[in-house]
Amino acid sequence: MRVRLAIVGGASSHVDQVLRLVRAGSLGPEVDVVVVAAPDAEPVPDDRLAALGACGVPVVRTGAPAATARAVVRHGPEAVLVATRDAAGHRALTAPLLRADLPVLVDKPFTADPDDAAVLVTLAAARGVGLTSASALRFHAGATALAARWRAAPGGLAIHASGPADPASPHGGLAFAAVHVVELALAALRDRPDGPVPVAAAAGVRTAVVPAGRDVATITVATPLDRVGTPYHLAVTGPAGREDLRVDLADDYLRPVLARFAAGVRTGVVAPSGAALVDSVRVLAALCA
User: Fold this and answer.
1) Residue 281, CB half-sphere, CA atoms under 13 Å: how many?
2) Strand order in the sheet with 215-222
3) CATH class of 3-135+252-271
4) What predicted TM-score, i.e. pTM, was given to this entire model?
5) Exposed site from 3, 9, 16, 259, fewest CB < 10 Å?
6) Is the predicted pLDDT of residue 131 greater than 70, yes or no?
7) What is the DSSP letter of 46?
8) Comparing C-alpha atoms, which of 5, 89, 79, 7 is closest to residue 42?
9) pLDDT of 52 above 80
10) What is the pLDDT of residues 78-112, one digit of tens each?
């Protein structure tokens, strides 16, 4: 099955990476991009639109969310990537696409508000269409391998994920990069987060404690953003000892997320989905509050 992908949002560097991956065939020979839609929610300068158009993909300004969805539908995609960067606008952009019965991958963070996440999850379930979102670290090869090694461990695990974030980001503040650390922790947890998420803040550091069934995750975000001096890190401690991993992003770090989405569009099953999406936003919102 060919997967024709529409991209909503043209300003993010993630759009360039998607186009490179598609041109290189890295998402499979039957994935292509049929349109890049630039909504009012994230204005794109004319020279940026021209540069995207030079890649051979139609690029259109589309206005408000409902008009954006109509423009996307006219290009006949099988699925949509919402690639705008501020999560506060993701509910408005995603809902009309779901109502058009299009599977949607929302670039991280999924939403800024857990209530918005729950509304979108409920709508997707009612329409019977796929809805997913994930940071690149959710499916980082090293992190998923580490988590798999501890999956069957007896007793509880203590999971620690840490990394940098920028509270002054113009794309939704701290949450824009902090979501990577949250998703890294969720990749290692064996059960869903449950109960309150207490957060402690000190100069340059915010730490959330996330109870999750058998396990507990501690999520630490350091500011300001410095991926060299403060790399992403994952540690798992259990009855058999401790394992640590420095988590680096490869040049094609979006490929696992996009490839999983394309495969899910073909099978009708995308992941993470449903309650897992709301869990991620709930933890992120607590960390950033």
Assistant:
1) 29
2) 199-202, 205-212, 215-222, 158-164, 232-238, 241-247
3) alpha beta
4) 0.96
5) 16
6) yes
7) H
8) 89
9) yes
10) 999 999 999 999 999 999 999 999 999 999 999 99
Is the confidence at residue 132, as pLDDT, over 80?
A: yes
**Pairing mode, if any, of strands 158-164 and 131-133?**
unpaired
Average pLDDT, the chain: 95
Angle at 172 between CA 91 and CA 132, to 5 degrees: 40
∠ Cα 267 269 275 (to 5°): 175
Q: Where on the phi/psi map is residue 46: left (φ > 0), alpha (ψ -120 to 50), or beta?
A: alpha
> Residue 225: pLDDT above 80?
no
Give the ranges where the chain is alpha helix by DSSP (H).
13-23, 46-53, 65-74, 90-99, 114-127, 141-150, 175-188, 255-267, 275-288
What is the mean predicted confidence (pLDDT) over 41-63? 93
Mean pLDDT value across residues 197-211: 96
Tokens 């503040």 locate to 173
Is 234 within 8 Å of 160 (Cβ atoms)?
Answer: yes
CATH class of 136-246: alpha beta
Q: Is 172 left (phi over 0), alpha (psi -120 to 50) or beta?
A: left
d(CA 108, CA 134): 6
Per DSSP (E only), the strands in 111-240 are 131-133, 158-164, 199-202, 205-212, 215-222, 232-238
C-alpha distances in Å from residue 107, one per residue of 48, 155, 199, 235 = 20, 34, 25, 25
- DSSP-based helix, strand, coil % in the chain, nearest 5: 40, 25, 35
pLDDT band at 228 (very low <50, low <70, confident <90, very high): low
The contacts of residue 280 (CB under 8 Å, 6+ apart) are 109, 110, 117, 133, 179, 182, 183, 186, 272
Other C-beta atoms within 10 Å of 149: how many? Answer: 12
Q: Domain residues of the chain, as ranges? A: 3-135+252-271, 136-246
